[in-house]
Every structure is written in structure tokens, then in C-alpha cells.
UniProtKB/TrEMBL annotation:
It comes from the Bacteria. This is 3-dehydroquinate dehydratase. It catalyses: 3-dehydroquinate = 3-dehydroshikimate + H2O. Catalyzes a trans-dehydration via an enolate intermediate. It is an enzyme of class 4 (lyase). Pathway: Metabolic intermediate biosynthesis; chorismate biosynthesis; chorismate from D-erythrose 4-phosphate and phosphoenolpyruvate: step 3/7. Homododecamer. It comes from Haloechinothrix salitolerans. Substrate binds at residues 73, 79, 86, 100-101, 110.
Length: 143
């Protein structure tokens, strides 16, 4: 089974970006965690990050066409991108929305997600472990 893990804007800056909120885990660490988790679960995972909305939309189209499950941290796009949401709505396999931080403890503008209504489930506030949990759910529910 192929699972696509997609990360949106500024997540390449993990490790140096607002460490009080996002901790010291880097994007490379996140990729490593996803790959190690996937290996244990016997699944193939690809982890991608972009700061360009159109590129994210095209990756979601690719996932829709291939019927791949997706773990998505759309970062700031979560809160306002109708384009990313519309691309998510085309997925036929499960979509798990992940946030490193607990967005509900933060600014009001982070309390609304464009994605949640079209996601299978949402994980927020568990740091990088949220990605591993999402992959475990995929492994359990997809065969
Ligand atoms: C985030 C939360 C978003 O509000 C923020 O814009 C991000 C990261 C998270 O993982 O906690 O860039 O998605």
C-alpha cells in the first residue's frame, strides 16, 4: 500500500521555526519517523513538502488519480485554502488531517479548518507522533 504524506508551507523550517510551539524536530526527522513507522507497518510511504499551493494541489490530484491514502498537514492553507480543500474532496481513499500543534489552543484564526469536513479524521497537538499514529490507522483500516 502506498501512502502519501504531504506537508505544506513553512514546515521545511521545523526545528528552527517557533521552537516553543513546534519543538526541535526537523522536517528530516519527520521524514525519518514516517519512513521508520511505515517500514514496521509494511507500507510504502512518500513524504513531500512544498511552500507552493499549486504544487500541493497537483500532488493531491496525483493521489486522487492513484487512489492513494493521504496524511496531510496543510499548515496555514488549512485555514483558508478553498483550492486545497477542493483537491482533498476529490480523494477517494482516506485522508487524515494532521497538525503538530493543538490549533484549538492557539489563535482564533487557527480554530477553523477548510479540510476537516472532507477528511476522514483529524489529529492535532501530538507533535510528530501524530504522523505515526495516522500511518498506523491507515495500516489498520486499509488492506
Ligand atoms: C500547523 C498549524 C497551522 O495553524 C500553522 O499555520 C502551521 C502548522 C501545525 O502543524 O500545527 O504552519 O499546521
Amino acid at each position: 500500500m502506498n501512502v502519501l504524506v504531504l506537508n505544506g508551507p513553512n514546515l521545511n523550517r521545523l526545528g528552527t521555526r517557533e521552537p516553543d510551539i513546534y519543538g526541535s524536530t526537523t522536517h528530516d526527522d519527520l521524514v525519518d519517523l514516517c519512513k521508520r513507522t511505515a517500514a514496521v507497518l509494511g507500507m510504502d510511504v512518500a513524504v513531500r513538502q512544498t511552500n507552493h499551493e499549486g504544487e500541493m494541489v497537483e500532488w493531491l490530484h496525483e493521489a486522487a488519480d492513484a487512489e492513494w491514502p493521504v496524511v496531510l498537514n496543510a499548515a496555514a492553507w488549512t485555514h483558508y485554502s478553498i483550492a486545497v480543500r477542493d483537491a482533498c474532496a476529490q480523494l477517494t481513499a482516506p485522508l487524515i488531517e494532521v497538525h503538530l500543534s493543538n490549533v484549538y489552543q492557539r489563535e482564533e484564526f487557527r480554530h477553523h479548518s477548510m479540510i476537516s469536513a472532507v477528511a476522514t479524521g483529524v489529529i492535532a497537538g501530538l507533535g510528530a507522533d501524530g504522523y505515526a499514529l495516522a500511518l498506523r490507522w491507515m495500516a489498520k483500516h486499509l488492506e
